[in-house]
Amino acid sequence: MKPQILRRLTDLRTLTRDWHRRGETIGVVPTMGALHQGHLSLVEAAKAGCDRVIVTIFVNPKQFNNPDDLAKYPRTENEDAQKLAAYAVDVVYVPEPDEIYPEGFSTTVSVADLTDVMEGPGRPGHFDGVATVVAKLFLQTQADRAYFGEKDYQQLLVVRRMARDLNIPIDVIGCETVREPSGLAMSSRNLLLSSGGMETAAELNRAMQNIAKGLATGGAVEPMVQQAKSDLFEAGFSEVEYIELRCAETLSLLTHATQPARLCAAAWLDGVRLIDNIAVAPA
Ligand code: PAF
């Protein structure tokens, strides 16, 4: 059965008030639609951890710094609803744009420091857009738990910090990245790759796994990154924006795996920007 779709906050609030009155816990999975297996794994986690599950679909204009990207972003509400039917979610909240950004909207939620690195500098305004919309979705859904993929690791940390700093009473839960058998992290952007491109794209994760192995034996990251870059260029990547070892909590730059860390990367293949990250345990 297709899930119930709500577009107005008052309708959503009627339900969430009732659920909370009955002592039921609410999980939210915020998305921009174009759902793939990665999103559906978050829905599964929410179903397992909460009495009620809300999936939100909102293509948030404030987090796109390129108008073309926003225009091209896939909008597949019917297919998404069909996919969600199999998971029996309680509500799909697809807010009308004025529920999120009413006339005269003039508030921005901005998280400092964590956004100064990696994805931040090249995408001005992106994380402000994410933090603002996610704060609104947390407050609108009144959820007790929210589920985010570790694929966007920096986003996960930014959202967690935002909720903590603003005292929004919600647990932000990070869920493992879902991968193709080749190791390629699932992403809506993979649809833009040819089948040959999909194979080559998996080289990014392979290169990262090799670096992680070297780090586990106490190696320094930099020479291994240089090797990985040259391997990726040889495989057909046109640009490697960064491959960096970062503290798993603060995202400060590390040279060795001396504490729980994430190896994070962004690279271009066939005009598609791919990002990935993996956990690295202290050596
Ligand atoms: O990861 C996404 O799809 C978006 O950034 C999010 C968290 C739904 C906010 O628009």
Task: Give a concise summary.
The chain has 283 residues and is an alpha/beta fold. The chain has helices spanning 9-21, 37-49, 67-72, 77-85, 97-100, 119-122, 126-141, 153-165, 195-216, 221-235; strands spanning 4-6, 26-31, 52-57, 91-93, 145-149, 171-175, 239-247, 261-269, 272-280.
Describe the 3D structure.
By secondary structure, the chain is of the alpha/beta class. It folds into two domains: 4-175, 3-Layer(aba) Sandwich (Rossmann fold), CATH 3.40.50; 188-278, Pantoate-beta-alanine ligase, C-terminal domain (Pantoate--beta-alanine Ligase, Chain: A,domain 2, 2-Layer Sandwich), CATH 3.30.1300.10. It contains ten helices and nine strands. The protein has helices spanning 9-21, 37-49, 67-72, 77-85, 97-100, 119-122, 126-141, 153-165, 195-216, 221-235, and strands at residues 4-6, 26-31, 52-57, 91-93, 145-149, 171-175, 239-247, 261-269, 272-280. Strands 1-4-3-2-5-6 form a six-stranded parallel sheet, with helices on both faces. Helix 7 (126-141) packs across helix 8 (153-165) and helix 9 packs antiparallel against helix 10 (221-235). The protein is globular, with a radius of gyration of 19 Å. The termini are far apart. The site of pantoate has 10 residues, from strand 2 and helix 7.
